[in-house]
TrEMBL record:
Coiled-coil segments on the chain, per record: none
Protein name from the UniProt record: Glucose-6-phosphate isomerase
UniProt catalytic activity: alpha-D-glucose 6-phosphate = beta-D-fructose 6-phosphate
Organism of this sequence: Rubripirellula amarantea
HAMAP family in alphabetical order: G6P_isomerase
Amino acid sequence: MSNTLVQSDAWKNLQQHHTEIKDRHLRDLFAEDSTRGKKFTLEAAGLFLDYSKNRMTGETMKLLVALARSATLPDRIEAMFSGQKINTTEDRAVLHTALRAPRGAEVVFDGKNVVPDVHEVLDRMASFVNRISSGEWKGHTGKKIRNVVNIGIGGSDLGPVMAYEALRHYSNRELTMRFVSNVDATDFAESTQGLDPAETLFIVASKTFTTQETMTNANTARAWLLDGLEGDKSAVAKHFVALSTNAEAVRAFGIDTDNMFGFWDWVGGRYSMDSAIGLSTMLAIGPDGFREMLAGFHEMDTHYRTAPLDQNMPVIMGLLGLWYSNFFGAQTLAVLPYDQYLSRFPAYLQQLTMESNGKSVTLEGKRVSYDTGAVYWGEPGTNGQHSFYQLIHQGTHLIPCDFIAFANSLNPIGDHHDKLMANVFAQGEALAMGKTADQVRAEGTSESLVPHRVFEGNRPSNTLLIDKLTPRVLGSLVALYEHCVFTQGVIWNINPFDQWGVELGKQLAKAIIPELQSSDVKLSHDSSTNALIERYRTTKSS
Ligand SMILES: O=P(O)(O)OC[C@H]1O[C@H](O)[C@H](O)[C@@H](O)[C@@H]1O
C-alpha cells in the first residue's frame, strides 16, 4: 500500500484545512468578499474560467498548489513535453503535444526532431482532403466521393465523432459523415443505410490495427463495398484509407500503404484526435480549419507549460477536481456543455479521464491508499435539467459540475440563446446559493412542504464562458482537459497513459467466441457464465 502521498505535509495541511472549510457555505464566502466573483477567474487560450463557485478560499488554492509542487508537477510537465518515457509501463514517451507543435518547432525524441514528420503527415492529409473535396479523387466507377464512414472505436472514434459534431457548423455539408464503432452489426447496418458504395469512402482508424471491433467492421465494409461494386477487388484502393501506427497490418488487410496516414506509439489512443486519426475532422472542416484547431491545442499547451501553477487553468481545474475527490469524497464530476454542438463532449471526456486516471496502483506498482479518477458524465444543457439535475440540487451526493457555455450562438435565432444562457447562469447560482427554509416560507409554502422545497446549496461548479465555439476553441478545450487529467495523475502518482484494465475482458471474449459457435466445446467458466453461454446456445436461432 502506498501512503507516501497521504503522509506528505502538503496533504496533511489540506486535511487540516478541510476540517476548517467543509462547513462553510458558498453563500457566506460570497457575502464576505464582494470581489470573489472576479477574483477567482482566469483567461487562457481563448477560454475564460470562473472558479469562484468552488468550496475554497485563497488559502485552499495556496495549499493545493503546494501539493502540486510537492508532487514536482512542473518537472513532470517538462518531462512530458520533452519526450521522456513517462509512460513507464509501456516504455513510451507521451508526446501528443508534438502533434500540434507549429511547423519549425523542435521536439526531440530519441535524438530526432519529430515535428517535421508530424507536418509531413498533416500535409499528406491536407492534399488527400483537397482531392476528395474537389472531386479529383474518384471512386472506382468514376463517381465523386459523397459519403465518408469512419470505422474505429475508443480513441479512434470518440474524438472524431465529438469533433465532427462540435464543428458541424464549419463543415462541408456536401459530405455525409457517419461513424461506425460498435461490433454490434446494427451499428454498421444503420450507418451505411442508404449509402451508394460507389460514392463511399471508408476510413479504417485504428492505432494498433488489431482491435476486434474495428477489424470486424472493416471486413464487413469491404464485403459491403465489393457486393455493391460487382466483386471487383481493385475497388478497395479507391474506397479505403487507413489511419494507423501499424503499416504491416494495414498492408495485410489489403490497404495500400500509400493510402495510409500514420502516427506514432508516443500518441495514446485517447490523445489522438489531433493526429492522423483526425482525418474525418479534416475532411469535414478542411485543412485550414484543422490547423486552427491544432493552434488552439498548442496555445493551451504553451499556457500549461509556462504559466505559474496558481495562474494555470488545467492545474487549477485538476486541483479542484482532486480537492472534491480526495477531501470531500465526491465520486463523480458532471460536465454540462450548454451547446448542442458539444453533445458528445462528455462521452469523449469519459475515455480521456476515466481510461487515463482509472488506476489503483502507483507508478511503483503499490496499491494507492486514496481515491483516484472520478467518474465523468454529463449531457448537454438544458436537457439534463429536466432529467438528472434534481439529484445534483437535492440529492445526497456531492457532484461538482463543469458548465461550458458560449457568449455567441452559432445559430442566433430569436431569443433562444439568451434563454439558454439564462439557464446556465441560473443553474450555477442555484447550486451554489440554494434556497433556505426561511426563503421557502416567505413564498407562502405550507410548513409540511418546506423541507421538500429547500435547496441546501453549497454545491460547487466551474463555469467556462467562451466567446464562440470555433475549431481553435475546441482545440484549447480538449487540451485543457488533457492537461487537467495529467495534473491529477501526477499528484496521485499513477500512470495516466496505459490502459491495462481493458485487456482482461478482451482476452476472455476471444476465448468465448468459439464456445458460442460450437456447442461441442466444453465450458469451464464459473457456473453463472457457463449457464448464460448454454442458454445463449439453445436460444439463438442459427
Ligand atoms: O485505435 P485502436 O488501436 O483500434 O484502439 C482503440 C481503443 O481500444 C483499446 O481497447 C483501448 O482501450 C483504447 O485506448 C483505444 O483507443
